[in-house]
């Protein structure tokens, strides 16, 4: 597995704050349940993947993302390749484009102050990316 980026320090008062660029509707959400937060992250990354161009191969990429206490994307890696370097790269670029996210629920954080998710992103031939 590719080593992910180093942990970004938490605010000095220990409170999680949304990273700059988090959409207002996510900042207003007082507390997302762990399931809703994970669904929101997967949906945003999948939507950021966009559509494949005519003639592009479809495929499924499994990625792992590391998200900090404040919602910043600290790293992304391909866990299982689609077999297409172009699609693998698109999945990683989608993760970067979708960030930052709302801060993760406390239940999902490690003692070091981050969470990691692993999920598949399916790129349909000449269609959209799907979780």
From TrEMBL:
Superkingdom of origin organism: Bacteria
Occurrences of domain TonB C-terminal (ranges): 33-131
Pfam families, per the entry: TonB_C
Subcellular localization, as worded in the UniProt entry: Membrane
Membrane topology according to the record: Single-pass membrane protein
Gene Ontology CC entries for this record: membrane
GO biological process: transmembrane transport
Keywords for the protein's UniProt record, in alphabetical order: Membrane, Transmembrane, Transmembrane helix
Protein's name in the database: TonB C-terminal domain-containing protein
Species per Swiss-Prot/TrEMBL record: Methylobacterium haplocladii
């Amino acid at each position: 597995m590719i080593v992910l980026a180093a942990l970004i320090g938490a605010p000095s008062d220990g409170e999680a704050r949304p990273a700059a660029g988090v959409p207002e509707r996510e900042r207003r959400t007082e507390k997302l349940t762990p399931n809703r937060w994970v669904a929101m992250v997967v949906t945003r990354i999948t939507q950021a993947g966009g559509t494949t161009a005519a003639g592009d191969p479809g495929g499924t990429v499994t990625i792992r993302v590391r998200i900090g206490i404040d919602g910043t994307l600290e790293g992304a890696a391909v866990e299982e390749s689609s077999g297409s370097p172009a699609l693998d790269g698109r999945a990683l670029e989608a993760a970067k484009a979708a960030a930052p996210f709302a801060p993760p629920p406390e239940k999902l954080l490690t003692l070091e102050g981050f969470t990691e998710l692993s999920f598949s992103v399916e790129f349909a031939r000449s269609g959209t990316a799907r979780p």
